[in-house]
Amino acid sequence: MQRxxxxxxxxxxxxxxxxxxxxxxxxxxxxxxxxxxxxxxxRIRKDDKFTLSVWDHEExxxxxxxxxxxxxxxxxLVDAQGKVTLxxxxxxxxxxxxxxxxxxxxxxVLGKWIVNPQLTIKILNRQATVLGEVYAPGPVLLEKERNxxxxxxxRAGDFKDYADKTHVKVLRTSPEGAVNETEIDxxxxxxxxxxxxxxLPGDVVYIPARRGKxxxxxxxxxxxxxxxxxxxxxxxxxILAL
Length: 242
What we know:
Layout: H1 2-23, E1 49-54, E2 76-77, E3 83-86, E4 90-93, H2 99-110, E5 119-123, E6 127-132, E7 138-141, E8 147-148, H3 149-155, E9 168-173, E10 179-184, H4 191-194, E11 198-199, E12 204-207, H5 213-241
Parallel strand pairs: 6-12
Antiparallel strand pairs: 1-2, 1-5, 3-4, 6-7, 8-11, 9-10, 9-12
Helix pairs in contact: 1-5
């Protein structure tokens, strides 16, 4: 009986040790480059959180970055018609405009009351979502105009032990509403190419687990139990021999 028990424990050890090789994908997927135009600029969307800062005119600002008493929670939502309601200006269309275009348009409007208005627009909810085998999954705020995949993954806490780096997926919704999926093998990309992989607001980055993760975890638990039982049997034999 004891020999059978030891044989079973050894078998579990062997299975645990070869799990990664046994369930590793047979071939790597073709690398597809995430291309973003060199002149890319974010365009304001419905439901964006919009702030306006007008220098020396706090009464015209919403969540002003210039005010010492600024409340971080101040913003206006881009409504279903693609407009924001601003002090004195009223409903102002911004959907589809870049931030630079919106600032230029607002300067023209505010120029009716202010000489050479200086203003800044910020969108507070430009973010991507990272899911799967990372330590801090969830939304990642994209504060810059251009953000690489490496930067986004770093802010999501980096990969867990069972992350499958050969099948990283990026889901991107086109302006027409179609969802396009790009699969990337991060283990086969040159360092120079890695910097060209960019993540845009609204993207979903998914890192799957390697095949056999559940089996490996269960086998590891079984080995731990078997080791405990073996130690208990050995201790029992020592006690009985005294």
